[in-house]
């Protein structure tokens, strides 16, 4: 399989999930997701093979150390979890699941065999809407685990040219940081955010800058601005085609605007102590705007909106 055919495809719920995988573990999962696309009937019992030699070639790493490092990563990957927004009996919920059910390492063949969890399978296969895809080569030169995660978050918004506002805590969670890691803003920016932005600008087909928002002297939110390095007539990476504007009736805008204003994900849109009613009015106007509506669509779908 050539690099041009090595597509990583993920449901946006998985793109927006919170998890902490090492750089090696993320790379293994990316190769597994690419490999899983070749299976016509993917189940938790389907073996997904990842050759260490393919890993070495894809990510341009030293072969002397790769076998031992991947052997250890295969062991730890079994214990790793991720959390994502889900639905349960029509209600918004948070689900925590494992990436894999079982991992086998065949030392004599330099082979990792993964058995993906049913949750992962549902979030990477047979996707028809609200998914993000990119070529694995775009993240192959990264040396920071945070660069992969940030790139995935950004590429989801490529067609809109800017992301939603991320609260610092939400962004840290999506990047896999706990409260004790790089806890000061200066450490977070220099060791995580700025390094990831630099790698993305250097190695991928997008450029990114970010704006900081403050309450008083404290940075509370960050929003990213994204541009493609490739011509728009031939986009190499795409967000889903489901970002088209959805015409909504006044009744729908009123109902869903009120519901969206109560979701914690959009509390960052409120100014200071702005009331829910005032925030709802703001969101209702945004739902009428073709650009601004797009940030709400995954949540609209979860709330029952049908295009």
UniProtKB/TrEMBL annotation:
Q: Which UniProt keywords apply?
A: Plasmid
Which segments does the entry list as coiled coil? Answer: none
Q: Initiator Rep protein WH1 domain spans which residues?
A: 8-154
- Record's protein name: Rep
Any one Pfam family match given in the protein's UniProt record, by short name: Rep3_C
GO BP term, example: DNA replication initiation
The record's annotation in InterPro entries points to: Initiator_Rep_WH1 (IPR000525), WH-like_DNA-bd_sf (IPR036388), WH_DNA-bd_sf (IPR036390)
Taxonomic source organism: Acinetobacter venetianus
The family annotation for this protein states: Belongs to the initiator RepB protein family.
One GO molecular function term?
DNA-directed DNA polymerase activity
Which domain of life, per UniProt? Bacteria
């Amino acid at each position: 399989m050539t690099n041009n055919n090595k597509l990583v495809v993920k449901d946006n719920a998985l793109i927006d999930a919170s998890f902490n995988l090492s750089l090696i573990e993320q790379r293994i999962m990316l190769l597994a997701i690419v490999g899983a696309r070749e299976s016509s009937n993917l189940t938790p019992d389907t073996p997904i093979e990842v050759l260490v030699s393919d890993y070495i070639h894809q990510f341009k790493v030293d072969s002397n150390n790769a076998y031992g490092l991947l052997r250890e990563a295969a062991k730890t990957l079994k214990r790793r979890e991720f959390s994502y927004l889900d639905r349960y009996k029509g209600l918004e919920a948070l689900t925590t699941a494992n990436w894999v059910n079982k991992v086998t390492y065949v030392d004599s063949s330099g082979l990792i065999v993964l058995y993906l969890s049913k949750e992962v399978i549902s979030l990477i296969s047979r996707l028809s809407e609200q998914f993000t895809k990119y070529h694995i080569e775009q993240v192959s030169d990264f040396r920071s685990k945070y660069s992969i995660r940030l790139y995935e978050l950004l590429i989801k918004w490529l067609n809109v040219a800017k992301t939603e506002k991320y609260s610092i805590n939400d962004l840290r969670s999506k990047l896999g940081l706990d409260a004790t890691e790089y806890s000061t803003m200066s450490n977070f920016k220099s060791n995580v955010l700025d390094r990831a932005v630099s790698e993305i600008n250097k190695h991928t087909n997008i450029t990114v800058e970010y704006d900081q928002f403050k309450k008083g002297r404290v940075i509370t939110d960050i929003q990213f601005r994204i541009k493609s390095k490739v011509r728009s007539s031939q986009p190499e990476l795409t967000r889903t085609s489901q970002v088209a504007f959805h015409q909504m009736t006044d009744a729908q805008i009123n109902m869903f605007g009120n519901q969206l204003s109560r979701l914690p994900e959009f509390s960052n849109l409120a100014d200071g102590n702005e009331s829910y009613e005032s925030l709802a009015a703001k969101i209702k106007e945004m739902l009428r705007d073709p650009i601004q509506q797009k940030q709400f669509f995954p949540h609209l779908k979860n709330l029952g909106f049908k295009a």
